[in-house]
Design brief:
seven-stranded mixed beta sheet, globular, single chain, alpha/beta, about 200 residues
Length: about 200
């Protein structure tokens, strides 16, 4: 299955009200597939593209959400450990999102993403590639669209469910094994001479 239009989900800024990728005929991948810039590809190809983007980034940053920060069911700790190992191999910063409640009257963009203003955290920390992992779908969908609309950050969503069409790259059904495959791809690229941004 392929996307029905030539719309590309690329870094912005795309504007104040960027279209939801789904309204532009970008479809979510089926099991065993990934989504790269609006195009459905085999999962292995998406994994390699994630590794490439992480290694070429100047300031890659992971945003782990509550689904990996809290040990709420079996497999969560293993997934969190795998995500931390990947961040370490890449040399990425980690900004955890333990919850999404708005912090008013102000947020500290150095240490958190506010549901209404994720672009402030991206701008403040000069993040060029970000990875969402363990972020609830309802929050990820909004935040990814705002980031695409107002920043030039390249977004990657490692989703435990069906994926996110508003990310530049997304994988679905992500478990610890999937994250370890990305780590292995990063290590292979490094061994082949690809150096971090």
């Amino acid at each position: 299955m392929t996307a029905k239009s030539s719309y590309k989900v690329l870094p912005g800024p795309e504007g104040y009200l960027p279209p939801a990728a789904a309204t532009m005929s970008v479809m979510l991948p089926d099991p065993g597939e990934g989504l790269v810039e609006g195009e459905i590809v085999p999962q292995e190809q998406a994994i390699n593209k994630i590794a490439e983007k992480l290694l070429s980034a100047k300031n890659p940053t992971f945003f782990p959400g509550p689904l990996v920060l809290w040990a709420w069911k079996d497999g969560v700790i293993e997934k969190a450990v795998a995500a931390k190992e990947l961040a370490d191999v890449v040399g990425a910063k980690i900004i955890p999102m333990p919850d999404y409640r708005p912090k008013y009257p102000m947020i500290n963009p150095e240490i958190e993403i506010n549901p209404n203003h994720p672009n402030l955290t991206i701008w403040h920390n000069k993040i060029d590639v970000c990875v969402f992992v363990g972020v609830h779908c309802h929050f990820a969908n909004i935040a990814l669209k705002i980031i695409r609309g107002g920043t030039s950050c390249y977004t990657i969503a490692l989703c435990g469910e069906m994926g996110h069409e508003d990310a530049m790259i997304t994988l679905r059904d992500v478990k610890a094994d999937t994250i370890r495959k990305i780590t292995e791809a990063v290590k292979e690229m490094k061994a082949g001479g690809v150096v971090s941004g």
